Amino acid sequence: MRADRLMAILLLLQQREQLTAADVARELEVSERTARRDFDALAMAGVPVYSIRGRGGGWRLVGGARTDLSGLTAGEARALFLVAGPASAATPALKAALRKLVRALPEPFRVQAEAAASSVITDPQRWGSSPVERRSPRWLDALQDAVIRGVQVRLGYVDSVGAVTERIVHPLGIVAKGPSWYLVGTTDAGRRTFRIDRVSSADPTGEPVHRPDDFDLAESWREIADEVDRRRTPLEALATCAPDGVARLRMILGDRLEVGGATADERIEVVIRGYNAYALAGELAGLVEWLEVTGPPGVRDQLASIGAALVERYG
């Protein structure tokens, strides 16, 4: 962490010419005492920094000196600042330090470094299951590079029934969802999501991506994930639940449960999504101690059928 701070201070000095301990403390969220020690450490390491005493004083680089840090290649800058992005396993403190460092990067790498830090998000939940280990598909690196550089790609794609298509895609971001990776982008037909393990080719065109000004990858993915969930669980059942059963319903049903207000008899109104009446009734039958389903009739009929079968078998 100290090495990250020293590098950040050095780049801030290049950007602003003069810094005080208070400036560094505010930027890097450390104490002024720590900031002063960091300046001393830079000087001891041979970095040509010096202090100016008194009002209006601070720390400067001798003769406006610059360092080889500005010699980072574009690829090195992108690789470094992927660590600051939401898909990284780095600690929040390290991510915060690197995000501050990215703002201090000299051009032309600042834009690409910032793009790298926001190009990928991770959604660990598999559709309808628990988190699992993921593997990187063949075209992941090429598509991530296209997102970061902001260039369109000619995308070959094999859909779920094996049909092969090709189209121009404006790549906007990449999402790791459970074991799978997805590309979020726009096409002539609007916003689309592509499973990267179904990509058969990805050729950059060199043309710039048209990125909506208000686009946010995390917000966009939430909308996509919500839409997928609605398609997977299109049926909604209405019910009331005993107050002490709401926590158990949350644990079992997760985001398929919507909790409403209290009824006149102090029960809690809930809405539960499921695939179809038969499957949903099978899930809810074990919750009869807390739950009373009020509709639709198909779910109630399936529950009655399950109850009759259980009585017949177990008496």
TrEMBL record:
Domain HTH deoR-type span(s) in chain numbering: 2-67
Classification via InterPro entries: CBASS_pafABC_assoc_protein, DeoR_HTH, HTH_11, Tscrpt_reg_HTH_DeoR_CS, WH-like_DNA-bd_sf, WH_DNA-bd_sf, WYL_dom
Keywords: DNA-binding, Transcription, Transcription regulation
The UniProt record lists the keyword Transferase: no
MF terms in GO: DNA binding; DNA-binding transcription factor activity
UniProt-listed Pfam families: HTH_11, WYL
Source species, domain of life: Bacteria
PROSITE patterns noted in UniProt: HTH_DEOR_1, HTH_DEOR_2, WYL
Record protein name field: Putative transcriptional regulator
Organism: Cryptosporangium arvum DSM 44712
